[in-house]
Write a structure and sequence with these properties.
Length: 231
Amino acid sequence: MKKRSKRYEERAKLVEVGKVYSLENAVKVIKQFPKAKFDESIEISIQLGVDPAKAEENLRGTVSLPHGTGKSVKVLCICKGEEAKAAQTAGADYIGTDEYMTKIQEGWLDFDVIVAHPDMMRELSKLGRVLGPKGLMPSPKAGTVVMDVAKAVKEIKKGKIEFKSDKTGGLHVACGKMSFSEQAIIENAKSVVRSLVDHRPSSVKGEFLKSVCIATSQGPGMKLETGSLLS
């Protein structure tokens, strides 16, 4: 049996076993947790009532967190000309075309997100074997292959993130940091859930949000009432 840290055990004492929490009460408990030496992430984990074997029921989309993720995101923008100038103004960390695609081919991956102009995708798609397994290949569904690259860069810098269901029909989405206020965490979490519901595939029947939990990087999870997330 895995031995838990003293901090984890102290946190676990604050969580009632078997209790289903409202989002508001769960966040109050989280804010009472003994602090770690770093600003932990807070994550929502959802089990969806989808069939992962059906391609049309694999969920993928984006959500703009009203209070951001609390994380600095490095954005590489693959574009040129006027789009490159606009991307620079919007705050992209790296901007270019061939030189960055060559660097990626050589193993450079010092970025979190790629935004690409559609004209660049023919060449960028050749890096699918490198970027695909790491979840870094831009796509229209994720809002990272766009004509208006500057707008996409701004949204990502402000807190727009991608979500994607896994092969079990599960999802794990960051909704803030321990340093955030209770209200900021609550509003971010509700934005995530609303976006998931908005992206519900039409073929899904029955319960869509089968279970929802919230947890910190190094703390116990708490099961949430779905009603408190949708109110």
